[in-house]
Amino acid sequence: MSGIRLLQEAEQEAMEVIKRAKLEKAQMLQVAKERARADLDEFRKEQEAELAHKRNQLGDNTKFQDGLERKSARLLRDVEDGFKRDAGAVADDLIAKIMNVDTTIKKARNKDAM
Asked: How many CB atoms neighbour CB 66 within 10 A?
């Protein structure tokens, strides 16, 4: 055989090796994707089961919500009662303070004095 023929055969063999390597790589990537999907599905199922378990443990949160609503209503009532109780006195106090404001103009600000 000639040297050129040997080089052509070696080149052909190398191309087949590269082709097989690329095929194997693609297959390995596909297998890795499938495993990752399976792992993700398993993880998702575990997390959903854990969430369902926690929801069952905590039960219905209407008790908590009812408690918050009662507390909010009580606080609102307290604020309204305080306003009704103190509004007149606060208004009287503000009016008294306003009426006692010194309205005299200081000499330094009076233009006629210059």
From this structure: 10
Domain range annotation of the chain: 1-59, 60-101
Determine the Cα–Cα distance for residues 111 and 58; give it in Å rounded to an integer: 76
Region for residue 17 given its phi and psi (left: phi exceeds 0; alpha: psi -120 to 50; beta: otherwise): alpha
pTM to 2 decimals?
0.42
User: What is the model's pLDDT at position 10?
Assistant: 93
Dihedral (CA of 19, 24, 27, 29) sign: negative
Token pair, residue 66, equals 């009812």
Look up tokens 């080089």; give the residue.
7
Rounded to whole angstroms, the Cα distance separating 55 from 48 reads 10
CA 83 – CA 99 distance, rounded (Å) = 23
pLDDT at position 102 = 80
